[in-house]
Amino acid sequence: MTLMHLDPDDRDEPNDTDEPDDPEQQKLFRCVSGNMDSKRIRLYLGLDNLVVDCMLQKKPGVSAIQYRNQLKLYTSSGLLPTMVIYNSTNSATFPFKLIMNASTWRVNVPRYNITIHTVAAPVDEWYVEFSMFHGFSMFSSKESILDTLKGTLLDVAREPILQWTIGEELSSRIIEPHLHRVLKLQVSQSPCAGDVAVLAPVFAPGGHTGVILSVTRSAFTAQARWFNATRSLCSLINEVCVSGCAGISIVDLKLTNCHLFLLTNRGLFISQDLLSPVTGTLNFTLLFLPALGQMDYSATTLWFSSQCVTDRIYFSEDTLSLISNEGEGENLHSRCVYSKYPFTRWFLCQASAADIAKNPKHRYLSFLHDHHQHTGLLLSHTEMIPLSFFCDPSQGFNLSHVGKAVVVPGFSSYLITGLVHSGSALAKPTMPALVLPLTSHRSGEWLLFHSAGRGSWGMKEGLCRHTLQSLDGVRNNALIRINVREELNFTFKAFMSDYSLSMVYHKKFMRVVLTNPLAFRVTARHSWDDTNNHILTLTAFSHLCKKATTTVMVYIPEASLLCRSSSFTFTLQNSCPEGLQIVYVSQQPISDHEWIHTDPVDHMNNKRLFNLPVNYRPPSQLGVLIPTTDNIYNADPSHPHPRQFYPISKNSGRYKQCAGKRSAEECGCTDRLKVSPLAINSDCRQRVLRLTFPVTDFNITLFLRRTNHADHPLCSPYFVTVTEVNNRTSWKVTGTHATPTMDRMRQYFEDSLKNNLYNPEGLQISLYGSELFHFRISVIPGVVLCDLVEEVQIYVDEPPLAFPTQHLVNNMTAIILGGLLLVGFLLIYNGVAMPTKSSIKTLKKHKRVDLKMRDRRKLITNPIN
Using CA atoms, how far apart are residues 721 and 719, in angstroms rounded to an integer? Predict the structure, then answer.
């Protein structure tokens, strides 16, 4: 649980001390985090609820009773604080409640109201805003004591680098004696979380300090974790290098969305995937780069075009480069290589041959990746070329000319940066492409120009007179994911903010710029309201089923740079929309509560759910008693495994959530996992849908579900494939709505898909076997930019007796009946009278008389003494 609390002295009673001089402390409305050494609010979201306390600062002389009455007055008037949590794709608002005992307002937000995900992954940074008057901007102004408080919310349960131990963990006290030897600090920030970073101090040579790293989640404003990665890195070097790793030190480091790169004076190391399950200390691999095999790593730098990527299909946009500059002047050697995720292949990044011919002595500075155009930008610096400007000896260059400009009509101008000797200067061309090495200009071809004297003209920015607004509630710099074949509209309004009227009727104030115009079909429609305000409506349509990104900037060209709202930028990404999934919905839905706690029945009073046995595995093609699947259902390591009669059954079956656990209680099966139909959660699956034999033409009704959207029936072109995850074969798809499009798609995917594709409309399945069937239904590739998969589990109960038992029973019954009929026929044929009811009674009477006579004879023969 994350508790954002007040100062220790302010928890029970507001402090009566005078207000401090710091304006930050004079604000009436306060929400103070536990991290007291930071002026910015930092919240941390774990697996538990997010709990936040806010308060009004009590003024001097106000008693505790008066203070509580003030809180009651605010609350009764509906003036409660609100917390807004948002990132580039989502936003949610949560109101506070008054807690009288603590004299504060409190909000308690379950984690699932913010995010349902718990697996480590890059998470777009969350921002928080605390407002006393949410939606009432008139009460809040600049430097107001009731101004909105802002901060960040970090999901510590998912941020990848925070889950790992990077080598041997150290105490910060061990590092303190070596701080005086630190030359510089190398810091790499998490692409998605601004407060998360990895720091590496670079020590002076000698001292055998090794590779020391620190990981923070609070921008190093609080205690961070320290690690010594020397031993793990040296073990890799010793395997390939005879000289060992004595004197190893860090040179540079970069933290990407899913890897940590460490550049040392002994080579470049890449970590294992940070998104993989944590099983121990973070492992590294030493990279061998033939292109840089002879380089001096101590003269090398790492470059990474950082961007937060939360969708795995865009991980390939992560680009890392190494730039080496050895030597100076004539001995300068610049090298550059780059690689893209998953960083298995490396390429040379070179300037064009023409540029190299013009400027042979170039120094590479950086390599940047443009993920919009999928191109790389290599920045280089050309050594300054001595340029001779011939002039009369009396007009030679001197130090006063440094900083002035040389204007050559019809040619590039130059900025004088130094002197070579009297009569010639060292200058930097403003248009390097026009200047060849050893270029000279004679007297009369050029003139000196300097505008910094008296009477020189100048410019200044005008006052702001324009405002641009988004009418859709879209935040500036938002990331908007758009689905394939989806159309979105965005509306903006531009007007004169100084209440003046435009002198031009129906003037187009706004313009639009796209960084990647081919990514989407974007059309613009202009209109004007009754007061001549310009309205711009943009329509974006995703027409390509491939990853694509474009940044859209709407701006007012004539607006002053002093305007705070004269431009609006957002990014469109062709991607899987937030929360997009396909779901199976039965004709009579069963709630999660019913699934876990009750026994729902149908209209015939038949149970709709079946309780699976402990450590259950479904039958295989070899028989009911010979399971071969690795999927275990309703797992409990403390119980034996049933149906373990054959080696093939004993050697199969693998725990997932229960791997390495001793009992079901240790498996961590939450209610969400218990109702999950996915095979990866089979350990926690205790109950499944129950149907009675026979199951013929069972309807599989699928819906397309998306966050903040209504469910829609899954239909063409979302064609699907159906597989049984446990490799059972006694089933068949017996119904689908066949269309010409489906037939063409079947022909198109005939060679690439192993299974037939079906139209989800009218999808029906017939089951010819018994017990559990586990189906996986997947949308075919090329329809949407994510994997849409749903799984359905059906238990077939009350089947007929299994073969050959049924045939044996039928044959034995026929034999017995045939034998009885044969005996009866023989008796009648031989004239044997069949017993009747009276003859049976007479027979019983004679039998009793015979028994009595037998008893009398025994008494006569053996008298009692």
Answer: 7
- Which residues contact residue 659 at a Cβ distance below 8 angstroms, ignoring those fewer than 6 apart? none
Peptide bond into 694 cis (omega under 30): yes
List pLDDT tens digits, range 39-94: 678 899 888 888 888 877 767 777 777 777 777 777 676 677 889 999 888 888 99
Distances from the Cα of 664 to the Cαs of 570, 636, 655, in angstroms? 48, 5, 11
Q: Strand, coil or helix: what is 798?
A: coil
Give the list of residues 6+ apart from residue 170 with CB closer than 8 angstroms, or none: 212, 226, 227, 228
Q: Please report, for residues 208, 237, 266, 356, 590, the alpha-carbon distance to residue 241 in angstroms, rounded to integers and kept in the order given.
A: 19, 6, 10, 36, 63
pTM, rounded to two decimals: 0.68
Residue with tokens 């990514």: 519
CA 18 vs CA 26, 31, 32, 799: distances in Å: 10, 19, 18, 81
User: Which residues lie closer than 8 Å to 327 by C-beta, 6 or more apart?
Assistant: 333
Q: Strands of 567-574's sheet, edge to edge?
A: 478-482, 567-574, 548-555, 511-514
Matching residue, tokens 């706690």: 597
Contact (Cβ atoms closer than 8 angstroms) between residue 121 and residue 12: no
| Pairwise CA distance, residues 509 & 123, whole Å | 37
CA 363 → CA 289, 335, 430, distances in Å?
21, 9, 18
Task: Please report which residue ranges of 404-562 form alpha helices under DSSP H.
Answer: none
Token pair of 755 as six digits: 């299974």
CB count within 10 Å of CB 339 equals 18
Q: Are 193 and 125 in contact (CB under 8 A)?
A: yes
Q: For residue 745, give the H/E element and its range.
A: helix 740-748
Question: Residues with Cβ < 8 Å from 702, sequence gap 6 or more?
Answer: 582, 583, 584, 585, 713, 714, 720, 760, 763, 777, 790
Beta bridge partners of residue 797, listed in sequence order? 692
| Local structure of residue 330 (DSSP, 8 states) | G
- Closest to 364 in 3D by CA, of 320, 322, 329, 331: 322
> Hey, is 741 helix, strand or coil?
helix
CB 34, CB 6: distance < 8 Å? no
CA distances from 610 to 583, 589, 597, 601 (A): 21, 15, 13, 11
Alpha helices in 23-153 (DSSP H): 64-76
- Partners of 792 in the beta sheet? 775
Residue with tokens 């070899």: 622
In sequence order, which residues have a C-beta less than 8 Å from that of residue 117 and are 6 or more positions away?
A: 158
**Residue 376 exposed, middle or buried by CB count within 10 Å (0-12, 13-18, 19+):** middle
* Contact assessment for residue 92 and residue 113, using Cβ atoms and an 8 Å cutoff: yes
Per-residue pLDDT reduced to its tens digit, 369-419: 777 677 777 777 665 555 555 566 756 677 777 777 888 888 888 888 877
